[in-house]
UniProtKB/TrEMBL annotation:
Stored Pfam families: Tetraspanin
Main location: membrane
Stated name of the protein: Tetraspanin
Transmembrane segments: 12-36, 56-77, 84-108, 217-243
Keyword Glycoprotein: yes
Protein family according to the UniProt entry: Belongs to the tetraspanin (TM4SF) family.
Organism (species): Bombycilla garrulus
Cystine pairings recorded for this chain: 147-176
Top-level taxon in the UniProt lineage: Eukaryota
Length: 247
């Protein structure tokens, strides 16, 4: 009976580690996608140091889970106590790190509010100055998502024009409609847009557009994170039980 129980524990341990392996692969793939994604999400991440750091943390965690899932599977099948102990210690460290990251994300969630981005935009945006990282990033986001400002074109009314501009309206070029949503895309009517004709402007704020675009992915990432934490917890329990059962 004890041998059957140990054998069952071994295969359950292998199963949970296989899920950790898959979870690590998913996090690794998601982290790589966030960093290299050409559709504009990388620009949003780069605009906020907290998100930028979080993307690399997710990438590192995915790589570690990928490796540890593999080691856990090997330790379970071969009934190697050293590998099991090594796996338990590192999975515990990762579990605590992920839990800490979740707590920090909850504490600093106010940095992702509409008011925060609006304040930062009005404070740092320099319109068509492509040498400024912040301005260039915001211009790329607005062009890619066909949006304007955080709430709409009114966000730019308090931002001064360049000294060489004689235009009365505050709308930047990045808010003008284009035939193709990229920097190379031709303007539908640039002069009319900059002179204040709303017909040729993107009037919707970027906050709403981006939130709607990535709402599904946010819930998917949250569900994935909860699932990974639960699997890690069970894997640690099975690892310790198997470690104690091996003679």
């Amino acid at each position: 009976m004890e041998g059957d129980c140990l054998s069952c524990m071994k295969y359950l341990m292998f199963l949970f580690n296989f899920f950790i392996f898959l979870g690590g692969a998913c996090l690794l793939g998601l982290g790589i996608w966030v960093i290299v994604d050409p559709t504009g999400f990388r620009e949003i991440v780069a605009a906020n140091p907290l998100l930028f750091t979080g993307a690399y943390i997710m990438l590192a965690m995915g790589a570690m889970l990928f490796l540890l899932g593999f080691l856990g599977c090997c330790g379970a099948i071969r009934e190697n106590k050293c590998l099991l102990l090594f796996f338990f210690m590192f999975i515990l460290l990762i579990f605590l790190a992920e839990l800490s990251a979740a707590i920090l994300a909850f504490i600093f969630r106010e940095n992702l509010t509409r008011e925060f981005f609006t304040k930062e935009l009005k404070k740092h945006y320099q319109r068509n100055n492509d040498t400024d990282v912040f301005s260039s990033t915001w211009n790329s986001v607005m062009i890619t998502f066909a949006c304007c400002g955080v709430n709409g074109p009114e966000d730019f009314e308090a931002i001064p024009h360049p000294s060489y501009s004689s235009l009365e309206k505050a709308t930047p070029e990045a808010c003008c409609q284009r035939e193709l949503q990229s920097r190379e895309g031709m303007f539908v009517n640039k002069e009319a847009c900059l002179s204040g004709n709303e017909r040729f402007q993107n009037r919707q704020g970027c906050y709403t557009v981006i939130l709607n675009s990535f709402e599904t992915y946010v819930y998917l990432a949250g569900a994935l994170a909860i699932g990974v934490l639960a699997i890690e917890l069970f894997a640690m329990i099975f690892a310790m039980c198997l470690f104690r059962g091996i003679q």
